[in-house]
Amino acid sequence: xxxxxxxxxxxxxxxxxxxxxxxxxxxxxxxxxxxxxxxxxxxxxxxxxxxxxxxxxxxxxxxxxxxxxxxxxxxxxxxxxxxxxxxxxxxxxxxxxxxxxxxxxxxxxxxxxxx
Length: 115
What we know:
0% of the residues lie in helices and 50% in strands. It is globular, with a radius of gyration of 13 Å. It is mostly beta strands.
């Protein structure tokens, strides 16, 4: 199983960014799977950013509520993370994840929020 994330880079404070993560390999479809995005700031522990259930129920960590939207396109085997009003503290490596056993992590994509 491969989870390929796209969309990292450099963003100015207050800017927006949309990450995408495509699942491929032995997974025929992500439909029916719980998905999520986690992040790990440099030198800190990983943390959950957002998750979405197979039925579309979403969860957002308090620090990003109102600034982030997770969505999914089962036909494209893709999960997205739209982030707005980005701040320097949002700088991190972002990982997509499939929660269903055995669980999979993407390779991560880094974006930096800086002027």
